[in-house]
Here is the input.
Amino acid sequence: MSTYSKPIEPDRLFDCLPKSLRPTKGDNEADGGSHPSKGLETAIYRTPTLVPPRILPLMNDIAQQLVQAGNQQSCYKIYRDSRASALEVSLRKLGVEKLSKDDVQKMQWEALEAKIGNWIHFMRIAVKLLLAGERKICDQIFDGVNFNSGHCFAELTANSVITLFSFGDAVAKSKRSPEKLFVLLDMYEVMRELQPEIDEIFEGKPCTEMREAAASLTKRLAQTAQETFTDFEEAVEKDASKTIVQDGTVHPLTSYVINYVKFLFDYQSTLKLLFQEFDNSTEAESQLAAVTTRIMQALQNNLDGKSKQYKDPALTYLFLMNNIHYMVRSVRRSEAKDILGDDWIQRHRRIVQQNANQYKRVAWAKILQTLSVQGAGSTGDLSSSGVSRATIKERFKSFNMQFEELHAKQSQWIVPDQELRESLRLAVAEVLLPAYRSFIKRFGNLVENNKNPQKYVRYSPEAVDQLLGQFFEGQQWAEQKR
Here is the structure.
């Protein structure tokens, strides 16, 4: 046993893996951290040779003789100790380490993420190669021998299994945070994937504890993932970051939450399994829809709160329009659209339109009032009324001043989506230009004969149209101007 129980070098183990999981040259770890491809279920693993096949019949023979001679205990101890030691050293060489909850807690996120990626990879190697190999040789060596090989196998693998599971447990029990959700799902996924093999390798009463430990780890990972979900929803609703986007563009929180939700959809099948762990009564798909809808609603509630930080009500509406439009566009371009459905998209498109209309109303009401014919003159015959001429001059001056103010301010604001930006400018032009043209046509002659007519009609309708083309460009425009 001691002659033939040598630990296995990592390279030999990597050679037994499917090509997609082998490390690339110059990289010590295989790509265990990325989200596994769907083809993994059919990937081929070759069981490594732990003991040369030609030696197995000889060992079977010796075991038979030892047991018949009444040396069960010696046989048991020799086998258990040599194989346990070989297995533990093989895992150690691979990089498996025993870590507590405190160790995990102290780790920087990047380091922890890398360790989790490795652990997922090590779990596959340990279960599909090392433990499966151990079971195979144990069955072959004690085949036909009157001997409690189940107990022996349980004891020789106990330490290694505890070490492997301890890290998973430590992560599941460590402090929850939104970014941990995806690695928890990766870990849960690998445990679900390996569960049938774990049940097969550790079959029988002596190995009950191992099977239960695996099932309990799977359950705990599922539970922590589900709690992290709930935390995330609350964190989005309560996010109190004082970041104000001065130009009314898409808030960092919006893009963060949307990316998070998009990422979640890479895990659709895993999430459905996760929901079934705790609630079999409702359809997993509808649970996923409910969770996604709640996260989106939490984001919307938060944005409503953030929009109230603006002193300018026009910017409040522009901000809401930008952010909800970003949500709608992102959903339409991702798998979330199948889950949230057309109703959600249509409802939120209407909200975008309502905010655009409110912006238009609030931002342009005053200047349109200046151009309105009502009250432009107190008498019917404007041309013969001195008062009215003065009023018209005032109106033109007021228009120039207001338009310049709006231009200075709103060319700094941003509508990042080109299509939305164009349609908003067009909507403004459609109400402003006809009113301005009509005002000039009707009252322009009252100021044209003045010494300084351009003081009043400073902009032609074409110039106004051109200047509207600079609205919502934000810093780009300011840079060009400089």
